[in-house]
Specification:
single chain; alpha/beta; eight-stranded mixed beta sheet; five-stranded parallel beta sheet; about 35% helix; elongated; binds ligand PMT
Length: about 400
């Protein structure tokens, strides 16, 4: 399976003192290349096999190995706060025994006790050690506590013996992380989704602009839910005051033109496009480099020109993604929404009445009707935007399914 789900994920890699430590360089390099943020924690014995600089270079982040190093953070708890998942590879008999018995006498063993995220361990050692009753019992103890234990591979070991004990391949470790994070069989795993959200700002002069009351919440909920379902998500966001959803790559823009450019950069790379942004339809024909002085005039006329219709341009892409738009209407909601669906060439449009204060712009809730290109209408009663987002993505999954059928 693809590993797009890794984009934006925060992974801790614990490295202990086994000869297979050198193979973990490929794991760290792959995780980083696929968009994860990686922090490596090494035991002192691990540093006998691979230098700290190697992992720092591959991950692009400082390697943690000293429990008592003078620094401005309490490392083991800050790493635990950072991590969405942790993998210990290779996992020696020593670290397995420490975790099984709650021993915390170095940074890695201490940090492992502070994690409340999924833990994956990849034991790698001499076959006879692996079969030792104490090691086997410790491994079983960890399994019982929910630690995912990766089966070592069979083959020729560094000591010359043949048998189980080799570190699994990088792909197997990535798949184990995907399962630990619950994205392995996620409905949108491997799908590339782009969501536009928030308002745009069309500058009149350096201190004035045309915009609208979109808070971005609807789009952010959609992006976060798509990421939770395993998709690789890009969120192109106008100016809002929301925290980026976990596992989502955010591109911040101001104007409709900038939003259009950010979307065009993904031409041909998307499986789903959801246009939740309240994109300005017009912008001032002239932009002034200096603030327009009031002087003694009582009126100021602005000539406005159309902005690029972003979602309509995406509809022209070949191949084109599944296209979902929103219709912000104040009258004749369903008729106007259905017309936009047809005019813009969408697969589905989400019709919402933006006159009401209890839904739509700026609200935590929305009440929408989903209209498919087939004409099928699904009214959704007023609910939280996170609930509405789940319903919309259920429909998106159905649209994707009908594409592959
Ligand atoms: O952000 P919130 O505060 O959570 O509010 C949510 C919302 C009300 C903004 C959202 O539910 C919504 O209705 N978004 C679409 C608003 C809008 O611009 O609707 P529209 O009918 O003007 O545009 C129709 C579709 O074309 C939309 O998908 C829009 O993103 C897209 N569009 C519009 C203009 C343009 N130049 N390019 C576009 O892509």
């Amino acid at each position: 399976m693809g590993h797009e789900w890794l984009r934006g994920r925060r992974i801790v890699v614990g490295v202990t003192g086994g000869i297979a430590a050198y193979k973990v360089c490929e794991l760290v390099s792959t995780l980083t290349r696929l968009g994860a943020t990686v922090r490596v924690v090494m035991t002192e014995n691990a540093r006998r096999f691979v230098g700290e600089l190697t992992f720092a270079t591959l991950s692009g982040t400082p390697v943690a190995h000293e429990m008592w190093a003078p620094r401005d953070e309490i490392v083991h708890t800050s790493l635990a706060d950072f991590a969405e998942a942790v993998i210990v590879a290779p996992a020696t008999a020593n670290i397995i025994g420490k975790l099984a018995h709650g021993i915390a006498d170095d940074l890695l063993s201490t940090t492992l006790l502070a994690f409340d995220c999924p833990i994956v361990m990849a034991p790698a050692m001499n076959t006879r050690m692996l079969c030792n009753a104490a090691v086997a019992a410790n491994i079983e103890t960890l399994r019982q506590r929910g630690v995912r234990i990766l089966e070592p591979e069979e083959g020729r070991l560094a000591c010359g013996d043949e048998g189980a004990g080799r570190l699994p391949a990088t792909e197997a470790m990535l798949d184990a992380l995907a399962e630990a994070l619950g994205v392995a069989d996620a409905p949108l795993a491997g799908m590339r989704v782009l969501v536009t959200a928030g308002p745009t700002r069309e500058a009149i002069d350096p201190v004035r602009f045309i915009s609208n009351p979109s808070s971005g919440r609807m789009g952010y909920e959609l992006a976060g839910e798509a990421a939770r379902r395993g998709a690789s998500v890009t969120l192109v966001s106008g100016p809002v005051s929301l925290d980026p959803p976990a596992g989502v790559h955010v591109v911040n823009v101001e104007s409709a033109g900038q939003m259009h450019q950010a979307v065009e950069a993904h031409r041909g790379e998307l499986d789903v496009f959801i246009g939740a942004a309240a994109v300005a339809d017009w912008r001032p024909a002239e932009s002034h480099d200096q603030k327009i002085k009031k002087g003694d005039r009582d009126e100021l006329e602005l000539r406005l020109v159309r902005t690029p219709d972003i979602i309509a341009s995406v509809a022209q892409w070949d191949p084109r993604p599944v296209l979902v738009g929103f219709a912000a209407e104040t009258t004749d909601l369903l008729e106007n929404a259905e017309r936009k669906l047809r005019e813009k060439g969408l697969d589905m449009i989400v019709a919402n009445d933006v006159c009401r204060s209890d839904i739509g712009f700026g609200s935590d809730a929305n009440e929408v009707t989903l209209i498919r290109a087939s004409g099928n209408r699904t009214p959704l009663p007023r609910a939280s935007k996170s609930e509405i987002a789940r319903s919309i993505l259920d429909e998106v999954q159905d649209l994707l399914g009908s594409r592959t059928d």
